[in-house]
Design brief:
Blueprint lengths: L3 E7 L4 E4 L5 E14 L5 E11 H10 L5 E14 L5 E14 L38
Parallel strand pairs: 4-6
Antiparallel strand pairs: 1-3, 1-5, 2-3, 3-4, 5-6
Length: 139
């Protein structure tokens, strides 16, 4: 089974494009902190390239931007190729099956289109009334 779960922050704005046949594809990268710090106290970070297709691609491109926290569920795809110098290279990509947006709407690292976020209405504090009825307490 090839399944990966990642939670991290976008390192750049997502790039939406289309294949020659018109299928939407979105490419983005996320930075994922490791669970434990190294010996010098610094936390290590891993960077993953992610590709989303079709409706998911359009949704990610529309509602995320650099800095947003996302959860990605998908599979790992490994491609090998030979560069211009004849050296064999390996490219690792995460193919997203699902992307969940974890950055709250309206925060500084909010959605890509803050026009969609409704302004927060001021909350009124409920009026509290004094209640002093100790006559029914059995102790």
């Amino acid at each position: 089974m090839n399944k990966v779960f990642l939670i991290g922050n976008l390192t750049r704005d997502p790039e939406l494009s289309e294949t020659n046949s018109g299928v939407p594809v979105c490419r983005f990268a996320i930075a994922v902190n490791r669970r434990f710090a190294s010996g010098d106290g610094e936390r290590q970070t891993d960077f993953f390239n992610v590709t989303a297709w079709r409706n998911l691609a359009e949704t990610v491109a529309r509602y995320t931007k650099k800095g947003n926290k996302v959860a990605v569920v998908g599979s790992i795809q490994i491609r090998n190729y030979e560069d211009n110098n004849g050296q064999r290279r390996t490219f690792v990509d995460v193919i997203a099956d699902d992307v969940e947006f974890l950055t709250p709407k309206g925060s500084n690292a909010g959605s890509a289109d803050d026009d969609f976020a409704a302004p927060a209405a001021p909350r009124k504090k409920p009026a509290l009334e004094a209640f002093d009825d100790d006559s029914d307490i059995p102790f």
